[in-house]
């Protein structure tokens, strides 16, 4: 069995695409996933399964569409991949703290997780939007965002749609919490 984290895009945000986590857990258990656990209302699910990523992504998206009538992108990471996201953070703790100190409106550090790695030509489109207030680093399928003001006011964050394919964004605290939740599960890959 492989431990996965599923990150659902755009549910329970601003009163739209509402899914109760208890109903989501039940749906995924009925779909054959085991040890299903959710974290906060924004669509973070930890579970175990024998299927591969592509098959699971399709299965979860189809089940959500059938049950809730919503077309939701699902981004999956194994526990090992989640660990690499945390361990390979390209920003130092000091850089993150400095950005946080400049941001009076909340979180400053995020990860945008893509289903497929961004193409280099697509990633180049973000360069004009990075600068004094916004910075990014790409590692594989993930883009780390260091923002010195609200994500709502970030030109860089607003332009992530220039990169094609399914993606979702989580703040660093959520990523760290998800990683801590998968740590106690054994065996790890």
TrEMBL record:
Coiled coil: none annotated. SUPFAM superfamilies: SP0830-like. Gene3D superfamilies: SP0830-like domains (3.30.70.1280). Transmembrane segments: none annotated. InterPro entries: DUF1697. This is Cytoplasmic protein. It comes from Lacrimispora celerecrescens.
């Amino acid at each position: 069995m492989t431990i996965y984290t599923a990150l659902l895009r755009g549910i329970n945000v601003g009163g739209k695409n509402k899914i109760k986590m208890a109903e989501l857990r039940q749906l995924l258990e009925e779909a054959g996933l085991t040890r299903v656990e959710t974290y906060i209302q924004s669509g973070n699910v930890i579970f175990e399964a024998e299927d591969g990523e592509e098959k699971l992504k399709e299965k979860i998206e189809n089940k959500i569409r059938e049950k809730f009538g919503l077309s939701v992108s699902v981004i999956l990471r194994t526990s090992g991949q989640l660990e690499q996201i945390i361990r390979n953070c390209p920003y130092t703790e000091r850089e993150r703290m400095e950005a946080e100190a400049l941001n009076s409106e909340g979180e400053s550090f995020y990860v945008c997780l893509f289903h497929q790695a961004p193409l280099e030509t697509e990633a180049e489109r973000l360069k004009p939007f990075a600068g004094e207030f916004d910075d990014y680093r790409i590692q594989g399928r993930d883009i780390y965002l260091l923002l010195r003001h609200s994500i709502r006011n970030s030109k860089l964050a607003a332009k992530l749609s220039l990169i094609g394919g399914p993606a979702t964004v989580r703040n660093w605290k959520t990523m760290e919490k998800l990683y801590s939740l998968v740590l106690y599960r054994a065996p790890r890959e």
